[in-house]
Amino acid sequence: MDGEELTEQETALYDRQIRVWGADAQRRLSKSHILVYGIKGTVAEFCKNIVLAGVGSLTLVDDRVVNEEALSANFLILPDDNLFQGKTLAEVCCDSLKEFNPMVRVSVEKGDISTFGVEFFEKFDVVVISCCSLAKKKLINQKCRKLSKRVAFYTVDCRGSCGEIFVDLQNYKYSKKKLEENIDCQLEYPSFEEAISVPWRALPRRVSKLYFAMRVIEGFEDVEGRNPGETSITDLPGVLKLRKELCETNSLNESQIPNALLERLLIGTREYPPVCAIIGGILGQEVIKAISGKGDPLKNFFFFDAMDGKGLIEDISEPNTGS
Amino acid sequence: MASQEQLSAIKGAKVLMVGAGGIGCELLKTLALSGFQDIHIIDMDTIEVSNLNRQFLFRQSHVGQSKAKVARDAVLRVRPNISITPYHANVKESRFNVDFFKEFDVVLNGLDNLDARRHVNRLCLAADVPLVESGTTGFLGQVTVHLKGKTECYECQPKPAPKTYPVCTITSTPSKFVHCIVWAKDLLFAKLFGDKNLENDLNVHSNDAANSSEHSDVFEYRKDEDIEEYGRRIYDHVFGHNIEVALSNEETWKNRNKPRPIYSKDVLPEKLSEQNGNMEKGCVTDDVSAMASLGLKNPQDVWSLGENSRVFLEALRLFFLKREKEIGNLTFDKDDQLAVEFVTAAANIRASSFGIPLHSLFEAKGIAGNIVHAVATTNAIIAGLIVIEAIKVLIKDSNNYRMTYCLEHPSRKMLLMPVEPYEPNKSCYVCSETPLSLEVNTHRSKLRDFVEKIVKAKLGMNFPLIMQGASILYEVGEDLEEDMVAIYAANLEKALSELPSPVTSGTVLTVEDLQQEFSRNINIKHREEFDEEKEPDGMLLSGWVEPPVDKDKNKPIGNGESTSNALPAEESLEAKKDVTIQEISEVTEIATGTKRKLSEVSKGTTPDHSGLSDETRNHNQLEKLDVDDEDDELMISDDWESLTKKKRL
């Protein structure tokens, strides 16, 4: 989009959402560039949402080949063999996503994202990663933070009927309307590494158990050199052992991370479509907020557990940081 | 993650979806991915361009086609081996009767109007089929579960009626832009382009008897009259003369700012046909548009008085030049560009006269068309939550049924807030056995008033049957005999006490809607006087909970269709700013009286905080789900008061 005004086509198509966030925000969306790494059901949902919202461009990175499992919770992949023969996940999803909104440029980037230099990330306003090891998350987060341009960084992971979103907007200034006035707000976000380094005993007492459980599983995969999600119920003894160690180090009562919860997270890579829709929706909303500069962004973790139905925000940061 | 029990229940389930729009598309997709294999879907609409920002199963090439059918085709591409049966039909049709509903294991609503929701609610109650209801507006949404006898039905907590305005506010003393829109749409537009036989309050305050015959000529286009002259004549009459007449009544303006009359010669001194040299070239495109012909490109611009006046005259001219045949039959349609332009311009000129801020076409269209603002993400979230509840219903996991609210601003850290459902409202006129009584002046009120205001509006019956004892006073149906139809028509015009079977104090009327299998007895009590302001209908139904009504409710002029689950159109402007609106009926429901939660004993009456903002009211009936120990036991937190006080207004 070149000019400053929204085109007639855009105004007609985006009418209902312009009534939510305004024409100004819509313009900003149309100029934004999103990078997505690791496409499964949840990320497919997210991509659908932001393409419909009318972002400028969406770049997909996922060189994995399409398989049976990918089909199970990813509605962007049609089961027609002819369509996905020999193509990567990113390529197949790219084709589907283009159809949702011809005004958005959807493309594929191939290669190992850990080898991409800092200048690669500079092209984007938002980076979303999923299906990522702990090491990769930290690495990409760091690359985003090294840039003078602020690149919003998100991780998203769903394990079974639970989901987690992490947000890093670095130093984020925005304004919002309170009653009749515009007030300026500022938030300081920690990096992923900084956040998870906050000692557990320093966190508020009622922090979601899911936060701790996710860290245990994540830690387990890291220590065992597993690919993300490459765990099963047979790993439970090892996971419980790690939990014990972590809890001792952090002076946390083991009962804060129930066995039952950990078991549910050891579900492997299968996804639960309703949770994909919910997490993909929340993430979509957050990215739209960050790009448009409108609305309080969540800081800095979001958790959903279908078992209790709560969608919670947790602020995992050093006590002195924050808004 | 779906357990064996869940998977098996999903596989064998027969599901009915009502609505294939914003929520419907997301829901159908998620159901299919979750393993559902037998889905039926009803939707009467066809696809429009403005749907495409969120109803992702549809493409530009599908515009005009049936939503239910296209949605089915799209999802079958992803899951070719499941069964999806589409119905391009209105859910109120008689074929969707109780027997039809009984076939399903669960019904999932993705509707956008109160009327249809009530209808489906009754059928689900009659068929004893669980209903999962939902709604979204912008960033807000909710999912609720309804099981007959176990939880509240959809109507246990009455939903607020659509906002209406007193006649005098519209015709004489507008103070908000929405009043000008209603005037422009329901009075001026209707008068000029609509059915001439309909009553119209446009000149309601013209007391001058001599003038009234002149007025009946004013709006009529005289044969061979120069169209611009006609336009200016109308302009001067409604914005000039009528204002002067209003100003002559000093009383009205004692405590109000006086409007100023506006005459076209002052705003547009030169003849337009001389100014706009290119006017006669007209539009080559199909869409006749005053904006296009005047070179006004951006619907988000707020036009000046001069520009609005130009649009007014040009739109009028184009209606007569290009769409003459439709004049006399037109009703306002938000997708009719020329109509929207005319109404915007007229409303703005009136607003200018009354010192009310002007609005852009974009904003005016939203208000006039009762447009609901909507995004894809909220619908996706709600669809996910609907499927989760639906699965619980299928495996009868009743302890875990939840009403879930999707909030824009977190409340106690929650963006998604689950609440236990309440037990049925014992006074609910739909699902309980409460007897109803009606106070009415049986000598003055006609049967027609009873049918329109009570039976149809309040009780939501679409095809009513009204009996007194064994006599049928009125019924609607396809196979009625002519003489019966005549009798019923005659009955409508009679006062209640003068009906063939007289209705007086002590009479019991039975009203039924056979299709909804909904029947109620109403005890009639005669009462002489009714307060015109508080009881404008002249009738009072009790044993039934009144929906919260807005203060200025006199003789109402509404702003169009009943889409009361949407934000009132005026407020949709506010959506661009912080949303702190009190009328979001889908998310917050006013607590009325003591309620008992499904599995726990109540702690007492929920307090009434109707003056507070949404979130605070949310809390008033929310149970806190505090997870305190490893057994994950639900505990009820005390002290509603301290919690509500913490919330911002």
From TrEMBL, chain A:
Pfam families: ThiF
SUPFAM superfamilies in the record: Activating enzymes of the ubiquitin-like proteins
Keywords in alphabetical order: Acetylation, Ligase, Nucleus, Ubl conjugation pathway
Residue ranges of every copy of the THIF-type NAD/FAD binding fold domain listed in the record: 14-310
Subcellular location: Nucleus
Gene Ontology MF term list: SUMO activating enzyme activity
Domain of life the protein comes from: Eukaryota
Pathway of action: Protein modification; protein sumoylation
GO cellular component: nucleus
Quaternary structure, from the entry: Heterodimer of SAE1A or SAE1B and SAE2. The complex binds SUMO proteins via SAE2.
Similarity field: Belongs to the ubiquitin-activating E1 family.
Protein name: Ubiquitin-like 1-activating enzyme E1A
Organism: Theobroma cacao
Gene, per the UniProt record: LOC18605127
Automatic annotation (TrEMBL), chain B:
Annotated residues for binding of Zn(2+): 153, 156, 428, 431
Transmembrane segments: none
Molecular function terms from GO: ATP binding; metal ion binding; SUMO activating enzyme activity; transferase activity
UniProt KW keywords: ATP-binding, Metal-binding, Nucleotide-binding, Nucleus, Transferase, Ubl conjugation pathway, Zinc
Subcellular location: Nucleus
InterPro entries (alphabetical): ThiF/MoeB/HesA, ThiF_NAD_FAD-bd, UAE_UbL_dom, Ub-E1_IAD_1, Ub_act_enz_dom_a_sf, Uba2, UBA_E1_SCCH, Ubiquitin-activating_enz
Biological process, per Gene Ontology: protein sumoylation
One cellular component (GO) term of this entry: SUMO activating enzyme complex
Residue span(s) of domain Ubiquitin/SUMO-activating enzyme ubiquitin-like: 438-530
Signal is among the record's keywords: no
Gene3D superfamilies per record: Ubiquitin activating enzymes (Uba3). Chain: B, domain 2, Ubiquitin-activating enzyme E1, inactive adenylation domain, subdomain 1, Ubiquitin-like 2 activating enzyme e1b. Chain: B, domain 3
Pathway assigned to this chain's UniProt record: Protein modification; protein sumoylation
Keyword Repeat: no
Compositionally biased tracts (Basic and acidic residues): 611-625
A Pfam family assignment: ThiF
Family, similarity comment: Belongs to the ubiquitin-activating E1 family.
Self-association and partners: Heterodimer.
Name the UniProt record assigns to this protein: SUMO-activating enzyme subunit
Source species: Theobroma cacao
Organismal lineage: Eukaryota, Viridiplantae, Streptophyta, Embryophyta, Tracheophyta
